[in-house]
Amino acid sequence: GHAAAQATVMIVEGDAAHPDIASLTDSSGGFQLGGLSPGWYNLEARIGHRTARRSVQLGDGESAWVEFDVP
To answer: Tell me: the pLDDT tens digits for 46-65?
Structure first.
């Protein structure tokens, strides 16, 4: 696959209360969603009408690497 530049990434559900935030991916497909509590989160990446979802678990103070394959 290739990097999904300018995809919108958002949290669609999670274990803990979470901010209603979204991020645009950069030219290399990278993004950040900050201020999240530990727990499981379901993320969605969207480019136009195409979407992909991934789940990620965060521990206290952790960051995670998430790859999306947006068809």
So the answer is: 999 999 999 999 999 999 98
Q: Which long-range contacts (CB under 8 A, 24 or more apart) does 22-29 make?
A: 27/3, 28/3, 29/2, 29/3, 29/4, 29/5, 29/68
Q: What's this model's pTM, rounded to 2 decimal places? A: 0.86
Q: What is the mean pLDDT of each run of 10 residues along the chain (71 residues)?
A: 82 87 91 91 95 94 88 79
Q: In angstroms, rounded to a whole number, what is the distance separating the alpha carbons of residues 23 and 66?
A: 13
